[in-house]
Amino acid sequence: MAWDRNQMAARAAEELEDGMYVNLGIGIPTLVANYVGDKDITLQSENGMLGMGPFPFEGEEDPDLINAGKQTITELNRTAYFDSATSFGMIRGGKIAAAILGAMEVAENGDLANWMIPGKLVKGMGGAMDLVAGVGRVIVLMDHANKHGDSKVLRECTLPLTGKAVVDRIITNLGVLDVVEGGLRIVECADGVTEAELRAATQATIV
Length: 207
Description:
CATH topology: Glutaconate Coenzyme A-transferase
Number of strands: 12
Oligomer: single chain
Low-confidence stretches: none
Structural class: alpha/beta
Mean pLDDT: 91
Order of helices and strands: HEEEEHEEEHEEEEEH
Helix content: 10-25%
């Protein structure tokens, strides 16, 4: 047993508190918008939107309303729109409390690699580098292993870094881990996952 992607997103939404401004990265993190519920959370998208709503129901999509991952989303009665320069001014100016980002690899010291695999065509780093440098808290939301079954929670990242020692908490399909002195600390195991199974699936040092 383990959490599916929606359960992972719901768990990540539990990290958010009333009044927070939060950026959601592409991939699994975009699902967090569906689980904010009644909390007073303002979601920011670096393509120029403050106040993202959940995903639209089928047939109600507006192609002009998209998140940073080009998925259709909904607006709220308080949604604001602006250019990307203003958006990144918010991020670089420390106005965003937290970012929930996907990752290809995370290291036990909080290093993050989430923008490219050498040899593969990429469009660029996007906003991830600015986010990890500018927000108050970085939460990684990802599958614990890659499609080959290898751990993505490592002693050291092997891919080009997005940021060094920037990750605070890791939420995967197997559980929740915090970056602490000397490695990672288990906060919570996913439903049906034992601590022994979580440790065995993690290459990084668990203290």
